Amino acid sequence: METKTELASTINVSPLTCIDLANSDVHQSGVSLKQACMDCGFFYVINHGISEELKDEVFEQSRKFFALPLEDKMKVLRNETHRGYSPALEQNQIHGDHNKESFFMGTEGTGEEPHGDNKFYRPNTWPDSDALPGWRETMEKYHQEALVCKAIARIMALALDMDESYFGTSEMVGNPIAYMRLLHYEGMSDPSRGIYGCGSHTDHGMMTLLATDSVMGLQICKDKDVKLQKWEYVRSVKGAYIVNLGDVMERWSNGLFKSTLHRVLGNGQDRYSIPFFVSPSHDCVVECLPTCQSKNNPSKYPAIRCSTYLTQRYKESHVSLSTK
């Protein structure tokens, strides 16, 4: 929950570590990443392999969808598996979200795969191709390209003193739950009235790869447990992605790595962003890594199956549309 405004302040722009995925010295990258994950859980990645042309096209297609009449967007209303369109004010108001609409899509399974009928791998809901030609194809291509998160996971393993391939198994991110969300913010935020583009929260999964436009709005709070919270803006850097850790990674690392509180403030301008959420396979049991616990530092979190944990978190952060 957001703290009262008189107990919070916003300070300048946060300087973030930049991780070069083309760096041949992966152990050096691991050292840099470890420090960044302990400090604030947010960092940039460059040389990620996703073309600027593709990213620009995804943003353009996102704008086209949100520019449709509301009645057309409501034809692809979010279903029970969280895929599809969410209108403004749909997300649970415990976060104070206002004037934010979104479109959710994820990994699709097939009946031939072991998890093909699992709710985390159900078919996506797509807008009418006549109204938005090429829209689905662009989104599917970007979803595949954004799995560069697997390369980040290899460096993450080194940062945690594990084997580089540790997170690459099919139970981990070799076969991940991967959602992408198109977001459109508009209007002004007013923290004094509890009104935000997106209220303070942490992400549920392992990590999030975030693409943003040039409109400022994202803020982070590096220490979520202090009474006087200090918020810092995060800049969008051309050619770089913002990456932040989620709660699953904090559990894996026994709290060593931070799942950092963040929010979005609207400034009256339209703002678009595309977070890509990566979690381990639904069958993965998330428990403290052996390198993150000892006799004097026992595990702080009980083991839990990833699908169980994510289901709990989704229920906490979304309202049922059938009740509206």
From TrEMBL:
The keyword Iron applies. Residues 176-280 form the Fe2OG dioxygenase domain. Pfam families: 2OG-FeII_Oxy (PF03171), DIOX_N (PF14226). Signal peptide: none annotated. InterPro entries: DIOX_N (IPR026992), IPNS-like_FE2OG_OXY (IPR044861), IPNS-like_sf (IPR027443), Oxoglu/Fe-dep_dioxygenase_dom (IPR005123). Keywords: Iron, Metal-binding, Oxidoreductase. One of its GO terms (molecular function) is dioxygenase activity. It comes from the Eukaryota. Coiled coil: none annotated. Belongs to the iron/ascorbate-dependent oxidoreductase family. This is Fe2OG dioxygenase domain-containing protein. The lineage of its organism: Eukaryota, Viridiplantae, Streptophyta, Embryophyta, Tracheophyta.
